[in-house]
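Morning - iron/sulfur cluster inputs below, output right after.
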Amino acid sequence: MAKGTIVQKIIEAHFTGGERVPGKPVMIRIDQTLTQDATGTMAYLELEAMQTQQVKTRLSMSYVDHNMMQNGPENRNDHLYLQSVAAAKGVRFSPPGNGICHQVHLERFGVPGMTLIGSDSHTPTGGGIGMMAIGAGGLDVALAMAGQPFHIPYPKVVGVKLTGELQPWCAAKDVILTLLSILTTKGNVGSVVEYFGDGVATLSVPQRATITNMGAELGVTTSLFPSDDSTRRFLAAQGRVGDFNPLTADADAEYDRVIEIDLAKVVPMAACPSSPDNVKRISELAGLKVGQVIIGSCTNSSYRDLAMVAMTLKGRRIAPSVTFAIAPGSRQVLEMLSRNGMLADIIGAGARILETGCGPCIGQGQSPANDTVSVRTFNRNFAGRTGTKGDQAYLVSPESAVAVALTGCFTDPRELGVAYPDVAEPEHFLVNDNMFQLPGGDGEIIRKPTIGQPPVNTPMPESIDGEVVIKVGDKITTDHIMPAGVHLKHRSNIPVYAKVVFECFSEPGKPSFAERAAAVRDSGRCGVIVGRDSYGQGSSREHAAICPMYLGVRVVVALAIERIHMANLVNFGILPLAFADAADYDRIAEGDALSFPAVREQLEKGGTVRGELRKKDGSTVEINFTHKLSPSEIKIILAGGRLNVR
Ligand code: MIC
Ligand code: SF4
């Protein structure tokens, strides 16, 4: 077991109960929370349902950054609800235009050594400043705001030893892409990644944050950097030196596994369609024609990244065959670039300037044309996430993206023939906090008609009489389960949003998943989803549990279910089970009956859960399932979800 690591120190300082044994649940006190609008509306509706008067954290932030298109009234209705509920409940509000939650939180609120949970899977961005920052479902964030501790499996710690120094045009993004090529997106559940070694000191906080941000794609609980001189410099430049705490692992710290990366050997990389771990060297892709380049997202939209882009573009022009857009990560970044003239260099080179927000990263505009290669500095390239079916999205560093924008094809930025811009770390960031809104006011909560109520499940029946509504393969992401993009505006309206569950698997002329599941539900039976490996990867959106629950789904069986999605299933009373024998996956077909006799009794007794599969030809077979649910999770499932447990 790991010893003397940063994560263990932070857990000790926040420990409220549990076992210090890898894999066993441990409870920690939460100092800060953050929400964003697309998951936040549900989180605050849940907070209201818990009858919480005022949040109990040191700081809770509500950001609006995802849903900014305002096509129809729904988005703005959400913003007004969020703004008013924040004021009433003691939450600080960051309005649309202020920037992406993770970037803004890093700049203005992150504190080394503190705990943060956020209703967004990229919350570990805060690990760049030495916070223990974890992504969670909205209900878990609501519980933390209400003062409840947060449960995590006591982590195994993967130590990543960084040596050397990045070479010109090779970037922090290439470091995390290199790590993704080693660890992949599968099999890392329950681990934390911690960086150490001489190379750490060569990276600035925004570079570290790029690395911890995309650590989310590894499926780990979080990633952490030490808090050192570089952290102090960043905080001082943000006018917050008082928030600095030094924090490093012990010199003799032991890790469960060590991976060594020599930064000097890191080269420009790209995650190829359609998974963040499908990594190749840019040089292997050289010459491939590209139609679209976008720079932005919570991974790569810091002042440092965009200043490097501006300095490269100055006096040049993008290739005529590409469209090129940038979305600065925060108002601070945009204001600094506009005041120092760099924005003019970016515009002058032909860039389209998007709002400071998630934008195209969550399929809000800028969908590429059919059969067009799109190059993005984002963190996810799951199939269809751009809003174009059959898309070909590649994820790269801003260095590589700007090289592609100038040449119109994949180009190793080291071959560009341009001197690598020397971007100095600002001694003072432009600090202008005038758009944050402090809690207070008359306590009135604005609820326009598109703001629904969080649906509440019924207690688990004695036995489950189930039917397999869908059977899917490996690596099903929450984007497959609950598409975002144009549907994002229905996040506060479950009956409407539920219509598009598993929309990507719809076939013309055939009933949709929603129609099939509702028919099973209306016949008095329960829906069952069958998945394979890494089911529920990606986003923290609890809608991937709430909407299936609304359609009558009671059980998800898979080879493995990812951490945040598993917690969301439990929170809404859906039973997550694993095949005891992986070969049983092949026996099941869509439309088969899969029942769980005396399921309450089986769960209360513990051990394997027995299911009965009845094939369409009438033959039956017994299938055994396992789970790692704690007694308190079983209690929640039996009650029909967390909102039924007082
Ligand atoms: C994402 O990157 O997929 C999102 C959109 O930020 C999600 C949250 C959501 O679905 O609202 C995430 O990463 O948790
Ligand atoms: Fe927003 Fe994209 Fe970051 Fe998610 S990954 S928070 S959608 S910028």
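Note: The pocket of iron/sulfur cluster (ligand 2) is lined by residues 66, 100, 120, 122, 297-298, 358, 361-362, 378-379 (CB under 6 Å).

O.
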